[in-house]
Amino acid sequence: MAVSRRQFITITGAATLGLASAPVFAKPTKKGRVVVIGGGFGGSTAARYIRKLDPEIDVTLVEIHPQYTTCPLGNAVMAGFVKLKSITHNYEILKDRYGVNVIHDAVVDVDPVSKTVRLQGGGELVYDRLVMSPGIGFRWGAIDGYDQAASELMPHAWKGGTQIQLLRKQLHAMPDGGVAVVTAPEIPYRCPPGPYERASLMAYYLKKYKPRCKVLVLDAKRDFPKAHLFKQGWDKLYPGMVEWVGSDSGGQVAEVRAKEGVLINRDGEITRADVASVIPPQQAAEIAHIADLVDQSGWCPVELRTFESTRHPAIHVIGDSAIARPMPKSGYSANSQAKVVALAVVAYLNGDEPGEPSLINTCFSFVAPDHAVSVSAVYRFGEKGLSVVRGGGGRTFMTGDFEAEARFARSWYKNIIADTFGQRS
Ligand SMILES: Cc1cc2nc3c(=O)[nH]c(=O)nc-3n(C[C@H](O)[C@H](O)[C@H](O)COP(=O)(O)OP(=O)(O)OC[C@H]3O[C@@H](n4cnc5c(N)ncnc54)[C@H](O)[C@@H]3O)c2cc1C
Hints:
Residues 33-145 form the FAD/NAD(P)-binding domain. The protein has 425 residues and is of the alpha/beta class.
């Protein structure tokens, strides 16, 4: 079926409004059709790079929300030194400059046999290659009493947006002398150093406005990433204010009673919190489960040369949903994986073989607005999957220039946003 650009827009609009009876729009294209699910760090980068590498490939990006609020710098918004507006981005450049067809709708099903994607609004998209970067879902109930309703009282604030604003409001309303709790899950989860950045920036805010408050981190782990650097920062900047309790000392939270502001560990010990940010155990986003892309771990196994699913061909899974050990689940990892997938998809649709990739990640964490720490690594694909390239990365020295790291962190953010969503020239 040949569909004109005008008809295509009409069908898309109707589908989004839920008026169409499941139309299949297969826009004719010289090289092939790629559908991308999820317009975050992974999906937007993949869409942009595929179009950049080969403008003859038709790319449709399906994203629920018209705007994307990043998790990176979300803790800075919570602490009040970055505005929510400056971490909120849209898809205009992807559409206007790169010719990506952007549809704001939710994907409700994927059929890997007929290679179709079904939208909540009623439309269907046909693909030659599908790229999925839908992020995370929560394991509701893994902590007794922690469900979606409880998260409105004890915000996870782990997907950006309204939850970050809620946490910010709660900190503002907290009495001086109160206790703020952050819970951290076991690995794997999105942004391994994120809970400790959150605790740091809670302390930054509270020291300024409510200096008799305490911040308590209740951790399901025995240790945590960049621990010595965070602890050094806490001692220097917030002496006596931040306490970390690891799993060996009863840090693992087993139950919450959100209405009472109570957290209970595995030994039945009770902690009362004035504010609690409960970051629950996680898994791949729901659509990855619906599409039968997850294994028993709850995450998506992929072949690490091309990030093609090991469960269904022609579907590439990247970002937080994918199992990409030893890469951490981060925006930078998702961005790096997206470029590998863009190259692989372009190669396949041009009848070529993809090459062997190397990837990169850096995680910056703010301990204060002018004090940051980082860890970075380069990864190479080989016989055993991905491995860390020795000497390719590193972490901030204990005697490092933390102020310079904070400048690098802001500059990293600017650059990755431009690389993900495009930059108007
Ligand atoms: C507090 C915090 C701080 C962080 N700081 C950093 C940092 O400094 N550096 C860093 O690199 N990383 C950081 N991260 C991690 C980073 O946010 C994630 O790793 C990154 O967002 C993962 O990208 P993704 O593309 O996999 O998923 P996401 O960015 O979550 O994008 C997924 C998108 O898919 C959409 N979607 C989901 N399901 C569907 C569906 N069915 N249909 C249509 N659309 C769908 C969602 O709406 C979403 O927009 C941080 C995370 C947190 C929580």
